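Input.
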Amino acid sequence: MQMSRRLQNSEMTDTIAVVITYIVFAAFAFVCAYPFYYIVINTISANNLSENGAVVFIPHEVHFKNYLDAMKIPGLLDAAKISIGRTVLGVLCTVLSSAFLGYMFTRETLWKRRFWYRFVVITMYFNAGIIPWYITMNNLRLTNNFLGYILPVAVSPFFIILCKTFVESIPRELQEAAEIDGAGTLTIFARVILPVIKPILATVAIFSGVNQWNAFQDTLLLMTNSKLYTLQFILYQYINQASSLSALVNSSGGSGIAQSLAQAQTATSIRMTVTVIVVLPILLIYPFFQKFFVKGIMIGAVKG
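Output.
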């Protein structure tokens, strides 16, 4: 009887613990997801109600004109092209350089391997500041240059460490077999290492892709040519200039008929609509890489 009661108490305790865990994580998920949900429902609700803060949980007088009007904002499509270009090329350069350097730092035949590895890692702990960085970029002629988005982040010590750790978890026999067959360093890297380390490559791609897509400070400091502005920088500008932009969009409505209060653009509608346009692409891409992300982080983390 006592044993049965103990088992029942234990099961009840476990059930309570599970319920509490679900409640806590559900509340945490709600806190994380609600801000974005709030922005989305305000972009498709009546703009006059959104401006007054009347839209909280349920959209009212649903319409999608805000997104059509957002396309009329000067420079938005060009900024989207720049953001997509810098993200794709930046991710490609960062992934390849991180994978290759991470692989080379595992090769005992590399001259002064430990010195160069420590030389790369030590840069994680020092930052010269914005002014020396700007002077360096200016001397390299990377101001008002699209390569200013790509080259400074092509080599990342953190990503190199991730790749090096992952490569070290691969059985050494794979490389030795390729060397016996006469394969060189580049051949081993391209045909043996790259196919095996796809999980960590996906992890690096996610990190660098999010960093590239969300970056706007480099545009603020390096670019004065409006043709090189990114979506994030446009968002930064439009949040500060939303009132004037709403008037501009309303005046370029196409027809001479005055728009209804529900669809007339306001500062709030401009801010929220552009925010959704900027955030949504990276939000949709992330789930496809999530399984690789988890696997890439975990493999090589535990040894023995």
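Confidence is low (pLDDT under 50) at residues 254-259, 300-304.
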